[in-house]
Structure formats: structure tokens, C-alpha cells
TrEMBL record:
Cell compartments where the protein resides: Cytoplasm
Complex formation: Monomer.
CDD domains in the record: PTH (cd00462)
Alphabetically ordered keywords of this record: Cytoplasm, Hydrolase, RNA-binding, tRNA-binding
Native source species: Ructibacterium gallinarum
Originating gene: pth
Protein's name according to its UniProt entry: Peptidyl-tRNA hydrolase
Amino acid sequence: MYLIVGLGNPGRNYVGTRHNIGFEAVDTLCAKFDIKMNKEKFRAVCGEGRIAGEKVLVAKPQTFMNLSGESVREIRDWYDIEENHILVIYDDISLPVGKLRMREKGSAGGHNGVKNIIYQLETDVFPRIKLGIGAPEHPGYDVKDYVLGKFSKEEVKILIPTVIRAAEATETWIAKGAQTAMNQFNG
């Protein structure tokens, strides 16, 4: 079984914000593979289905971003999922808007949701897809305000193909492995 986690914050106030691009990517993935996100368990909204012939559980933690690892750990422990079968999709302020980068492991890079997942899983060795949201144009701009801000119409146009590519990268990761997915989708 594979676990695919999209990071974001629950509630209407956060829909369309930069920090919720992980939720958007998971929604796109679920639409592509007809996975219904109709269960609430492990402090997450979840759906089960198949991608590339493999059973998957897709989750959107409802713990708020900074405690996402608690939900991920509960799911991992319940289903006994190996870390290399856990894919986390989230926003990255260090990448330009629309850029996608997949990694097999690594630090949190300042992302508090990922930091909590690393803490809860006690490892940084799990695959992830980082989706570029750009950085504030002004150096003094508060990062929290930026990531909780909404995308502009121009940014949305750039990001639509990016979340579709994230779904494709996820399918490739499951079907052919992380190395193939990274070679194909990292640009």
C-alpha cells in the first residue's frame, strides 16, 4: 500500500492559498484516478483507490499544517506503511511558481509541516513532491502572510498544469519508482 499526503490547512479560509497547494494537488490526483475523499479518520480526510494497479490511501491531514506529522504517523502505524511508500506533496517557497521538484529524502527546508512529519516519523527518508509557490518580492515581507495569501489569477494559470504534472509524477513514482519519476519530472 502507498500513502499519498497533500499538505494544507483545513477550512474555507485557506482554500486557494499558497500553503494549500498540496491539498489542490491531491484533489487533482483523486479526480484523475476517481478516488473519493469520503472518509474522516486519523485526523485526516481520506480516500482509497488504485493507481498503477497498486492500492493507495490518499490523505489531507486536518490538524493544520504544523501538526501534519501526527496524522501521517497515525496512518503509517495503522497500515504499517514503509516510509519509502509515503509521498508528501507540499508548497515550497524556495522554488519559482509552477516549478515541481521531487526528492526521495531531505530536510524540511524551513517548512513546518514537513518538519513535523520528519519529527513524527523519526526520519527524513520519505519521498516528496515540492511545488513552487515563489517567494515574497520584498525581503521584509512576512513569510507567514505570504504563504497564507491567495494566488493571483496569473499564478493560478501557471499552477494548473503543475498540479496535473504532480498527479502524473505520483503515478510514475508508484509504477516505476522514485528515480524514474525524478528523471522525468524534475526540470
